[in-house]
Design brief:
By secondary structure, the protein is of the alpha+beta class. The chain is about 40% helix and about 15% strand. The chain has 2 domains: about 1-260, no CATH class; about 265-340. The strands form 5 sheets. The chain has a 4-stranded mixed sheet with strand order 1-8-7-13.
Length: about 350
């Protein structure tokens, strides 16, 4: 155990000693090979795109890290490498003073992914989006968007969704540390971690590489609201990413800005705006409630602007805490409205 801890410290120190510009585009998916000294942004709020065809499984979006800082890898439907296998998402975890990336993998069971609520069946514990039945994947209609695709293997189980959902109104994207998800792997999840695994498919790796080269996905550019939060298929996003890369490639200035970018309260404001818009669009929030929510957000924005103006463009620690308190209150109100509107 002692030798493992020493080895881990050496790996973390080595990762931090490498200049950010030298980090590979693709993240490692096994172990902790990328460590960052500051937390990833909050998870953006988005709508799951429709299933492209029966047999595809949902893989949630996540924040990657490259030579231009954090970037969003869109959630996407993918084909599993073999029947019977499920996807365990990767996650960021705090330890040893840094945030390390734990890569995702395919396996017979869904293991520990930090308790991060990615949504659409990945509520923080296990997977509630479906199950394999005799070599054919059956979808839980309670969490999946089928669009116009005809799917015969469908069941509805809302109980499993509720039982495996970790409430995360602030959309925290990492485990541990100050403000992170406070959950450890269960004995069963530890057992699943020792099972036979398959690394991400070539399509998944390519998907991540395209996101790393898409300027609109950089946290320093989109401030927590990526240009493409999710895609129906890997190929559909690749076309979009190539267009973005050709029209406006990532510059040296973007890389410099990305390395020094730190998520701020502005990101939470953007996330709240998205939640209100999505709720009104789906009918879960009526127009009067949306107007009140928007006014509440405008008041918070005004408060932040005044505080920044009084402090040379920055917020004090006390002001940060007050703004977060107000945002938490607004977030709970939106959640209540959406629950009532179901």
């Amino acid at each position: 155990m002692a030798s493992f801890k020493i080895l881990r410290k050496i790996m973390i120190a080595a990762a931090l000693a490498v200049p950010v510009a030298m980090l590979p585009v693709a993240q490692a998916h096994a172990g902790i090979f990328i460590s960052v000294g500051f937390a990833p942004p909050a998870l953006p709020v988005y709508v799951q795109p429709p299933l492209p065809a029966p047999g595809y499984l949902w893989t949630p979006g996540y924040w990657g890290y490259g030579d231009a800082g954090y970037y969003w890898v869109p959630g996407v439907w993918v084909e599993p490498p073999t029947p019977g296998f499920l996807w365990t998402p990767g996650y960021w975890g705090f330890g040893g003073g840094v945030y390390g990336w734990h890569g995702g993998y395919w396996g017979a069971h869904v293991g520990f992914y930090g308790g991060v609520n990615y949504g659409f069946g990945y509520g923080g514990i296990g997977f509630a989006g479906g199950e394999w039945r005799g070599g054919v994947f059956a979808y839980n209609g309670a969490v999946n968007n089928f669009g116009g695709v005809h799917v015969t293997n469908v069941y509805v189980n809302r109980t499993i969704v509720q039982q495996n959902t970790i409430i995360n109104n602030t959309h925290v994207s990492y485990n541990g540390g100050a403000g992170g998800i406070n959950r450890q792997a269960s004995p069963q999840e530890q057992q699943f971690a020792n099972e036979r695994h398959i690394q991400p498919t070539a399509n998944q790796t390519q998907h991540q590489n395209f996101a790393a080269q898409d300027r609109s996905q950089l946290a320093s550019v989109n401030h927590g609201r990526p240009g493409t939060p999710a895609a129906s298929s890997v190929n559909s996003y690749h076309q979009v990413a190539q267009q973005h890369s050709s029209a406006q490639p990532i510059s040296a200035a973007d890389r410099s800005a990305g390395q020094s970018y730190r998520p701020s309260v502005n990101q939470r404001e953007g996330n709240q705006d998205q939640r209100i818009a999505n709720g009104e669009h789906s009918g879960a929030i009526n127009s009067r409630e949306a107007a009140n929510d928007n006014q509440r957000q405008a008041n918070i924005d005004h408060q932040v602007a005044n505080d920044r103006s009084a402090n040379g463009g920055h917020l004090t620690q006390q002001e940060h805490q007050q703004v977060n308190k107000e945002q938490n209150k607004a977030s709970r109100q939106i959640s209540k409205q959406k629950e009532k509107g179901k």
